[in-house]
Amino acid sequence: MDSTSPQTIPQNWYSDDAIFKLERKHIFHKHWWMVAHAEQLAENGDYVATTLAEWPIVIIRDQQGELRGFHNVCRHRAGPLLRDGVGNCRQFTCRYHAWRYDSSGNLLKTPGLKADEEIDYSKFSLFPIQVSSWNQMVFVCLDDATPDLTTWLGDIVDIAEQYPNNTSMSFLGAVEKPGSVNWKAYGDNSCEGYHVGMVHKNLGASMQRETVEIDAYEIGEFIGFDVKYEATGGDQTRDGKGFWIYKFPGLLLHFAEYSFNAESVIPLSANSIELRRWFWVDREEAERRGINPEEMQAGSECVMDEDMEICQLVQRNLNTGVYQSGHLSPREEVGTIYFQKLVRKALQPHLSRSLSGGHKWAR
Ligand code: FES
Ligand SMILES: [Fe+2]
Prior knowledge:
CATH architecture of the largest domain: Alpha-Beta Complex
Distance between the termini: 15 Å
Order of helices and strands: HEEEEEEEEEEHHEHHHEEEEEEHHH
Strand order of the largest sheet: 1-10-9-4-3-2-5
CATH superfamily of the largest domain: Naphthalene 1,2-dioxygenase Alpha Subunit, Chain A, domain 1
Helix content: 10-25%
Largest sheet: 7 strands, antiparallel
Number of helices: 9
CATH class of the largest domain: Alpha Beta
Number of domains: 2
Bound molecules: FE2/S2 (inorganic) cluster, fe (ii) ion
Number of strands: 17
């Protein structure tokens, strides 16, 4: 590699808690995150309580049928309203002292308080967050100033229209996979196809790898992989053409002619993530092509596991400190270069000298 090959972000960015704190504020807080699929929130009272980068949140379909999102934090002394999980409730009762809120976030009752110590309920509603859905996918955003979901998705909306819509497919299932890896190590990997031949033998054999086109898209800040499968080798559940997306900071979308899946890369801490992936299939079309949907999902999960395994090994090596920084190939790693550019853009204005890794910035 010569001096024109961009330098990677420094090793300490993959493990430093101070970097993670900056990312919470300047990246995670400002973007949309997929946290559920629409069927989980179909009925009034259906909720999904989860944790996003150390923020406990809840999404609920309120009694008026509106989707609402809140911090899972009581206005009394910050107690938890719900355990993480899914369910249905008409009201929230805090697990600490039983203050009660309706499903639209309004405070209803403060048990045990006497009339002379009552408070103005209208000032103690739950803290709201943005919620929005697109094609059966439910997203949250913690920052009120972030543009609406379809603006954030940018050119992805047009690309999606070129593939069968998952709203007319069957929901196949969901998986959650935790990993001991920084979210950026997983992002770096997901943004390039350079590793496919080594890490994904089956997937590699089922693709026309030389025809894959990888581009960075500015409107929506994502990397797109235009792919063609050949069902003659490798994973026999892949057929036709497809389009893979890594949308910054942590959303993967995989469009195909008979299926769709979406994956959310949820940062948990500086060195841990959880992958959540939701699968849809057009059963009729899959059957017509001789594809078994369950085998197709198993094949996708296998690719996720292969990625997670290599990323965890990379993370372990980064943690040793023996490696400080490397170089990226402008031809093979164009997506990773773009991903890291976006990370730098978000963090660079807020870095102290000690956190910058002591490197000059590669452009
Ligand atoms: S913290 Fe919720 S009722 Fe006290
Ligand atoms: Fe991979």
